[in-house]
């Protein structure tokens, strides 16, 4: 957030068919979630000078709205719904309607220091869509394989046909991902650089490039918290409870976990690190999370410093 900015905060509650906004106590209302209505709303926001729209992540419905606001040069903050609801409870607000949420989002932006949304790179956005489709195919394939073991002769034939179809689709989307990365010089160079690390494969490198635009631009400790592998203390008085990781970007963490399992076996340095933690009495899952943090530190350094040489 710019240090000298003095923006006019606007709360915006986004639904599939409707947008509710709150510009100030006397200027609030609703509009249809259509291109024409959104364009008129953008023109209204431009009259405010420096407008900063605060909205929630609403299952993807916010993507088009945010993209159009950014294209018009309007600042946007996309916040987590759980944090906004906790803010409402702190105010003693229990009622919830779309209009109330719009007012709440405006107050939330005024009171809490928020991070501005950065316009997404077009190539990274396309890669993210391909990864999301691949994840859906993987989930479906896993479900079909689980049903095959208990299926009768007739159902077994149908499920086997569905399994073959999903496997072909999975190979096709992975080929599209590789082709997309290969055609973009920046993505290609970063992907090749990341895959020089033993344990980092094409899926993890693509996931990092698609879901972590901050890679190489922030410190390793911040990156660990961003992904959700930083342990947080839970101490009070004489109580010193075990630390746990929480929050973060689940899409990246799930892929990183499987990569850490591979690196703990095949990467000489990380394998030695993993075994040393085990020898010190750490639980295996704790050791794997530590390997995940080490891998994040390494991939961040590799992108941050082109002259960094791997051991």
- Unreliable residue runs: none
Look at the helices and sheets and give the structural class.
Answer: alpha/beta
Alpha carbon gap, first and last residue:
38 Å
The count of strands amounts to 7
Instruction: Tally the helices.
Output: 12
What's the average pLDDT?
Answer: 92
Oligomer: single chain
Largest sheet at a glance?
5 strands, mixed
| Spatial extent as radius of gyration | 23 Å
Report the portion of residues in β strands: 5-15%
Strand order across the biggest sheet?
3-2-1-4-5
Q: In the residues, how many domains can be counted?
A: 3
**Helicity range:** 55-70%
Shape: globular
The topology string of helices and strands comes to EEEHEHEHHHHHHHEEHHH
Q: Explain this structure to me?
A:
With about 300 residues, the protein is an alpha/beta fold. It folds into 3 domains: about 10-110, ATPase, nucleotide binding domain (Nucleotidyltransferase, domain 5), CATH 3.30.420; about 120-185; about 185-230 and about 245-310, no CATH class. The chain contains 12 helices and 7 strands. The strands form 2 sheets. It has a 5-stranded mixed β-sheet. It has a two-stranded antiparallel sheet with strand order 6-7. The longest helix has about 30 residues, at about 155-185. The protein starts with 7 loop residues before the first strand and ends in a 7-residue tail after the last helix. The relative contact order is 0.08. The mean pLDDT is about 90.
């Amino acid at each position: 957030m710019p240090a000298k900015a003095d923006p006019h905060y606007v709360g915006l509650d986004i639904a599939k068919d409707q947008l509710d906004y709150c510009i100030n106590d006397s200027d609030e209302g609703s509009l249809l979630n259509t291109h024409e209505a959104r364009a008129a709303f953008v023109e209204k926001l431009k009259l405010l000078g420096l407008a900063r729209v605060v909205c929630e992540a609403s299952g993807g419905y916010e993507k088009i709205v945010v993209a159009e606001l950014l294209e018009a040069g309007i600042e946007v903050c996309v916040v987590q719904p759980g944090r906004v609801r906790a803010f409402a409870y702190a105010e003693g607000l229990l009622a919830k309607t779309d209009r109330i949420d719009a007012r709440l989002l405006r107050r939330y932006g005024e009171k809490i220091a928020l991070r501005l949304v950065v316009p997404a790179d077009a190539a990274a956005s396309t890669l993210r869509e391909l990864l999301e489709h691949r994840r859906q195919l993987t989930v479906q394939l896993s479900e079909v394989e689980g049903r095959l073991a208990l299926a009768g002769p007739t159902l077994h034939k149908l499920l086997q046909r569905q399994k073959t179809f999903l496997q072909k689709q999975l190979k096709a989307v992975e080929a599209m991902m590789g082709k997309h990365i290969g055609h973009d010089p920046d993505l290609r160079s970063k992907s090749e650089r990341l895959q020089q690390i033993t344990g980092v494969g094409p899926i993890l490198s693509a996931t990092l490039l698609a879901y972590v635009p901050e890679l190489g631009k922030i410190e390793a400790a911040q990156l660990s918290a961003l992904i959700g592998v930083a342990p947080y203390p839970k101490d009070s008085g004489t109580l010193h409870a075990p630390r746990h990781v929480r929050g973060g970007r689940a899409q990246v963490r799930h892929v990183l976990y499987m990569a850490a399992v591979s690196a703990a076996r095949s990467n000489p340095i990380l394998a030695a690190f993993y075994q040393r933690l085990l020898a010190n009495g750490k639980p295996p899952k704790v050791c794997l999370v530590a390997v995940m943090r080490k891998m994040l530190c390494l991939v961040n350094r590799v992108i941050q410093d082109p002259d960094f040489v791997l051991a």
